[in-house]
UniProtKB/TrEMBL annotation:
Source organism superkingdom: Bacteria
Coiled-coil intervals: none
Subcellular location: Cytoplasm
Gene Ontology CC: cytosol
GO biological process, one term: cytoplasmic translational termination
Domain Ribosome recycling factor residue range list: 21-184
Lineage summary: Bacteria, Pseudomonadati, Pseudomonadota, Betaproteobacteria, Burkholderiales
Protein known as: Ribosome-recycling factor
Major localization class: cytoplasm
Family that this chain belongs to: Belongs to the RRF family.
Transmembrane feature ranges: none
Record GO terms (molecular function): ribosomal large subunit binding
Length: 186
């Protein structure tokens, strides 16, 4: 393994950590309706748990209402029950061949809880990035120990890995600030 391989691996893993955080932040409710909050709701589809987007079409009816139209009419009650039983605190209602899911407005207290949740998620993302940095630095030290690279090369590579880490953490901080702004906007 070369220095370039170590840096490339670290960069790829940091990018995956940021993508994971982005996906986690997308699940956090902001008071406005968006179909992404239902992506992880599991529906009992003929005995096997299946993600809601696989059994129904999700659309936005208006700023606060999500429309869920199952591909099969007989799945209507199952879909409604799955949304109600999820831990999202939503109260769906059947309206013809569609399940309407109104998203309640967030109270100030709930918004602050959401901001805390976002900060917690971001800290997990930062920890993941720092773990990648630690692993990369350990691999560089191993290369020096095996006499594959010089200590100067290792120091330069460590500085590059640190720059990657700083950039990833700055990206995470920016995502958190944007999400906080989105949550606190009434």
């Amino acid at each position: 393994m070369s220095v370039a391989d170590v840096k490339k691996t670290a960069q790829d893993k940091m990018a995956k950590s940021i993508e994971t955080l982005k996906a986690d932040l997308a699940k956090v409710r902001t008071g406005r309706a968006h179909t992404g909050i239902l992506d992880h709701v599991m529906v009992d589809y003929y005995g096997s748990p299946t993600a809601l987007p696989m059994v129904a079409n999700l659309t936005l009816i208006d700023a606060r209402t999500i429309g869920v139209q199952p591909y099969e009419k007989k799945m209507l009650n199952t879909v409604e029950k799955a949304i109600r039983d999820s831990d999202l605190g939503l109260n769906p209602s059947t309206f013809g061949e569609m399940v309407r899911v109104p998203t309640p407005a967030l109270t100030e207290e709930r918004r602050k809880e959401m901001v805390k949740l976002v900060k917690s998620e971001s800290e997990d993302g930062k920890i993941a990035v720092r773990n990648v940095r630690r692993d990369a630095n350990e691999q560089l030290k191993k290369l020096v120990k095996d006499k594959a690279i010089s200590e100067d090369d290792e120091r330069r590579a460590s500085d590059d890995v640190q720059k990657l880490t700083d950039k990833a953490i700055a990206d995470i901080d920016k995502m958190v600030v944007d999400k906080e702004k989105e949550i606190m906007t009434v």
